[in-house]
Amino acid sequence: MATDTLAAPRSPRSDIRKKGPNLEKWGWIYMRVSGVLLIVLIFGHLFVNLMLGEGIHGIDFAFVAGKFASPFWQWWDVLMLWLAFIHGANGMRTIVNDYVTGPKVRAALVWAIWVAAALLILLGTLVVFTFDPCIPNLSDGSVLVEVCAAQ
Asked: What keywords tag this UniProt record (predicted)?
């Protein structure tokens, strides 16, 4: 009678562990913390935009201009933007590391993910902090005409 036993699980090799911070551990912690913060930020964003005031019918260019005139809402949206893009890029990096077997292809894809995330974070941050509602041609019926005329 043969004894069927399971092989011992592989133990980590201490000779391949890099010195320095454990980036996988910090990435794992970031995903949990940013996920909780994103839930608060996103539901706060949705509540203010959709439930208060006129709801979805009140969202127009003037509404966005009014929100972006406040430093509180600028930082709220930028924090949401940064957390969401880094959270998403880190998740994509994890998927690439799990499923792409070629080291060169994996490195290229991870690099492309982080470059795309950094570019979108930069562009989004610039939009939020440099937003000027007085640049477009405004019709006479807009509330912003009076605000922009006063500047």
From this structure: Heme, Iron, Membrane, Metal-binding, Transmembrane, Transmembrane helix
- Rounded to the nearest integer, the mean pLDDT of the chain is 84
Domain boundaries, given as residue ranges, for the chain: 25-149
* Integer Cα distance of 127 and 142 in angstroms: 22
With beta carbons less than 8 A apart as the criterion, state whether 70 and 101 touch: no
Q: Is the pLDDT of residue 94 over 90?
A: yes
Cβ-Cβ contacts under 8 Å for 114 (sequence gap 6 or more): 89, 93
Of 127, 123, 121, nearest to 88 (Cα)?
121
Going by CATH, does the domain composed of 25-149 fall within 1.10.10.10? Answer: no
